[in-house]
Give the backbone structure.
Amino acid sequence: MKDILFLSDLDNCLFQSLRVNSAGVHPMTFKASGEAHCFATEAQNTLFNLLKPRAFCVAVTARTPDQMQRTRGWAPEHINQLALTDHGATLLYRNIDDSPIWTPLPAWSDTYRDAARVCEAPLEHDLDTLSAFLPELFLPAHAKAKIDLSYSFGGDVPFYITLQIKNLKAEEIAKVMQIVQLQLEPVLQTLQGTYIQHQNDYTLAFWPTYVSKEKAAQRLISALKTGIGDARFDQAAHEIGEIALILTAGDSHTDVPFMRLGDFMLTPAVSPIAEQAGQHAQRHMNI
């Protein structure tokens, strides 16, 4: 029985594309075509392997259920497994002795689905508002902006907005995405909904505030003791006994709220969290 609860972000934390880090050697995610997409470095792979024998591991990710299904390198060592996807709006379950397929647990997501339906009209309005602004974005000549509405809860409920700036060179991404966010500030004041902005590489996502990794992780920690009214969840909860340690991991500023629910936090040395911490330390030490 496990006594460590490991709640971890995935992308740019436990693995990333070779374009982001060419040192990746262990395939972790795969495209729909079957081609390997993201890889873990030796250090990332060693960290995960170090934790797996003793930890009940739960992914806490913005990935969709379909993307999580193709994250084949995420392989905890307990039979009944859970994963929080869609920023925590969806809780997936699988029993790896029976099948590698992840299955959503409706008892978890029903509340979020209802909220998404209520927010459907404002979300579509805000998509139109942002779409109308795209021609005014100042971008490198070779870059192209693409905006989409992403669906969840079976694929029929509008959930969040993604803005991608494509065709950027690796060394351009950080600066261009920062400039894009600055340009968007005035138009964001006119949106009907309220959102959390989450940047991952060249993608900027606008997530509704009724869902967050922090809220989902807090709910999960409590539910491991009380249940959610689902027998499959109960089977997973039985894999972990009295929790001696909650360990969290993430790389971005939007991960920090859920990471602070743990006893200790892990972040890659090259990450927005580590960079901000380093800058803060320099200011306070007058370096």
User: Anything to note?
Assistant: The longest helix spans residues 173-188. The longest strand covers residues 157-166. The mean pLDDT is 94.
